[in-house]
């Protein structure tokens, strides 16, 4: 039976994630604390993995209850700790020095900073999918693939690519599904960017990653996937929205997952 196997939040967009047992669903559909903060340059552009491979060199750990972050700079002797609210200017200064240009941290408590503001719900993938995709690449394990793809919700108890049932052939028709008592709409397969091609620790890109990924994704696309939604095959995991009728506010590891339509 499908169940919620893992929840991963990314408190600062493009930095390391933190695994949690439960997460509150905001009225926008976003998970509380996920991409709540984002780094911006002076032109108002995201400082993220798409634009700055150097960001992969930062190691961060979060204590969400205490609202703190521990930052390990490359070559640094020990991690530096900051409070995400009261010491935000000091954190901005550390990041500015690291990138070599002035940055600011912006906050959005209602939605966070999702890549697709029209699909602000959690991104969904199955554990079996991560295992299958990792097997396409020599010397890659499921943990590294998880860090490359950065999904919020991981579904267990299902075969690889099970989540490809969560979108339809018609882009105007969403697929309704429930996690615990929270109803979501599956909208579309997530179009991947350059980030999954890079080693999540070094930022070094694998020039063959996308080619292998596309070939294998096409070859293993399950019969239940809506082929018309693949104008190319560099797509994986599902973008979602919160269903309007949903009233529950919390997801918890172990919750049952059911496709409704």
Automatic annotation (TrEMBL):
Domain MOSC: 88-260
InterPro entries reported for this sequence: MoCF_Sase_C (IPR005302), MOCOS_middle (IPR005303), Pyrv_Knase-like_insert_dom_sf (IPR011037)
Superkingdom assignment: Bacteria
N-terminal signal peptide: none
Name of the featured protein: MOSC N-terminal beta barrel domain-containing protein
């Amino acid at each position: 039976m499908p169940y919620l196997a893992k929840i991963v939040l990314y408190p600062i967009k493009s930095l390391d994630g933190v695994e949690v047992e439960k997460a509150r669903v905001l009225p926008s559909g976003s998970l509380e604390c996920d991409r709540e903060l984002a780094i911006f340059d002076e032109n108002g552009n995201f400082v993220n993995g798409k634009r700055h491979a150097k960001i992969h060199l930062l190691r961060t750990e979060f204590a969400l209850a205490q609202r703190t972050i521990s930052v390990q700079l490359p070559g640094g002797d020990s991690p530096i700790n900051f409070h995400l609210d009261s010491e935000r200017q000091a954190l901005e200064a550390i990041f500015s020095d690291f990138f070599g240009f002035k940055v600011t941290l912006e906050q959005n408590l209602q939605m966070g900073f999702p890549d697709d503001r029209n699909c602000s719900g959690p991104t969904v993938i199955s554990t079996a999918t991560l295992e299958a995709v990792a097997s396409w690449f020599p010397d890659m394990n499921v943990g590294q693939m998880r860090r490359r793809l950065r999904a919020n919700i991981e579904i267990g108890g299902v075969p690889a690519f099970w989540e490809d049932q969560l979108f339809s052939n018609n882009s105007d028709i969403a697929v309704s599904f429930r996690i615990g008592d929270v109803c979501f709409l599956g909208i579309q397969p997530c179009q991947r960017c350059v980030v999954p091609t890079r080693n999540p620790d070094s930022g070094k890109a694998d020039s063959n990653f996308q080619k292998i990924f596309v070939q294998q994704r096409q070859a293993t696309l399950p019969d239940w996937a809506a082929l018309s939604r693949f104008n190319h095959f560099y797509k994986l995991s599902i973008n979602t929205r919160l269903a309007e009728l949903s009233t529950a506010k919390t997801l918890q590891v172990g919750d049952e997952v059911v496709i409704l339509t």
